[in-house]
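Example 3.2
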Amino acid sequence: MDDHLLGWLRTLEEDRLGRILANRPDAIAAPWPRRLDTLAQRLGNGFAVMEAMRGLPLPCLELAQACLALREATPERLAAFVGVPAAELTPWLDRLYDHALAWPGADGVVHLAEGVARWWTAPLGLGEPLDHYLNSWTISNDMLRALARNLGLPPHGNKRRTIARAAETLGDPDRLDALLRDAPDGTRPLLDGFAWDGPVRDVEGGRFVMPGTPEKWAADHGLLYRPSWHVAEMPREVALCLRGPSYHPPFTPDAPEIATLPVDPEEADHLMTLAAPHVVERCAALLDNTSKVPLPLLKTGGVGVREVRRVAKETGCDEDETRLLLEICAVARLLAWDEQSAGMVPTERYDRWRLDEGSVRLRVLLSAWWRMERSSLRKIDGKYGTVLGDDQSGSAVARVRRAVLSALAALPSGTAFAGQSGLVRNVHWNAPLLDQALLTECAPAVLAEARLLGLLANDTLTDLGRALAGLAGSAGDENDDTVPLVEHDPALVEASTRALASVRRSALFGPDLTAVVTGPPSAELAALLDRVAERESRGAASVWRFSTESVRRALDRGFDADELLDELAGVGTIPQPLEYLVRDTARRHGEVTVSTVGCVVQASDPALLAEIASHRRLARLGVRLLAPTVLVSSVGPEPTLAALRENGYSPVAVSDTGEIAIHRTRAEEPHNGKLILLPGGQVAELSDFEAPHQAFAEPAPDPHEHARRLIAAGRNANEQNGRTWAVIGRMATRLATAQQSLLGFVVDRGVRAGITLTDGLTATISHGELRGGVLDAWCEEAGDYLEFPLAEIVEVRGAY
């Protein structure tokens, strides 16, 4: 924990502390901290600092680098360094402060979180400070005295004073310029190479020990240092002096403009109301298709192109749409690998999803796309990646998606971006830590996916897109099903409801055996018409045509004529030709039957087969006589042979050629197909998708309300100090001394521990506070803070 950060947090007013908590939701994730020292520890966590930096625009990161390059960087020195008035830095410094990535010290110096310094090992292309080299254990006192003589400094004095004098000389541009006047020829170009293209460069080690060379002169005067024979480095202060007073690091306070065009908002809204129902409808059709024909995976993982094309043809989607929806359904856990079916099939979650309202189903799909760590329409070397295959970019793809939508949401309503290159530049300014090559590669795919989902229409964000983009900085882990996900956001709920408000739930049946839906059909209506008719067109109006083949297909799936006619009558008036078609097809349906048998049993003795057919213990085989010497079983050959042998018969297996077959048991080969990859790279089976509970954890507290509690707790901190051990020793009398000490660490240091109460209940607790004779601590099992009477705690143990 950074003591400077904790000291600054103690000085903050409620407003700024509330902004920090709002910008850093990781800091108040469960168990939310109740003391400023715990909060400071979370804010300074290296991983949390990196995540916070990913959400900052370019000017903030440029200032952070400038702070690292300067010694004791005050706002005034920073302004002079970057070459702008101090007032222009204020909003960007405030943004760093509001994320607790930087804070002003009492002396006005800007301090940076340790995690920020670890990100840039060479800020602005500069090396380590001079102190780093002069305080190294490889620098002896004799070497320091020699350096002082070469710099024209008094050689006497202690080591610290000598280092301070050398640093002052080498960090002064005028004194360094005077020193270089006596340098050998070639020294200035050598040093300029390190100053501008360094700080670490490969060198010829022999020249550093050869008298008269620029390399040896530079090393003798403390301008270059060699960590190894063929590598040399230049200190930070020396490089800044060589760059000169006219050097200013980059500072880009203005975002690149995105060229825009005016668009009709009503037209974009209309396109959204067409696309959104289509997404829900096609997902239902795709999942229904996989329930009948499980989707196999390649041995190398993912779904093959041939299967994608088959599903696209059978569901009426195009290939791009099929690729995207397969990915979304997998991330939404509506589709998963089933070992028994040896393919991807709908999960039990799909059974619940299909019963939800259309807007709820849409939000589940959009939420899955929002956190999806693959891009199904991304092309690498001109080719699509494998659907549900590996993607090394992982979470970076999801960050690109959110950054692109956030940039589009910043455009005024009624405008569309006019060029993709300008959009990419703007996105990179807003999210500079994104890999620029990946951003350029993924941006077209993100836009194409957004168009298919109804988030983007005529190159402007729809209401759905704006609602989703507004969640770019939302709290919670987007891969964690125990917290409310984006589908519960009020703005998205409203937008999705409106996007599906225009769906049609009725059709116009014509005497020419057609059904017309004037507008986007509901998923239920589309599923019904797809079941009994062939779809001929889509768009503003969709047309289906009934035929003998299409009606027979519905009858083959187990529907009868009356059931089909009743369902069709529920969505429109049925003309007489359609009723005649359905009933006539049903009348001829089943004239020829085809039975499925597991195996055929033959014998030359009819009496023996009649005995087997009537044997009560063989009833489970479902045997029946087809002829006096031919018997069929409903199960396969192996279980039939085993059952007959168990009951005293002596059957043998016969191959398709009529010859007796002898089988030897073979070790079962492992399944070589790759299972579906969940977000985060985890391999999962169908059972992994069946969550034991659907309860949500307690939501994080309101940032500003929690800031008020933290400030109040900070005022009472001094009163609590020293009371912990006394209260625990007096009240927790059932505990041994060692266990009392462990309980004290739960209070003073927030450690985790397991406790047992007098009634036998156990809990895992942390972040405790004492309130009289009660321990108020975070309970992991309950997902909230609970009170535990000290007198009722009978055991405390470490939790790892």
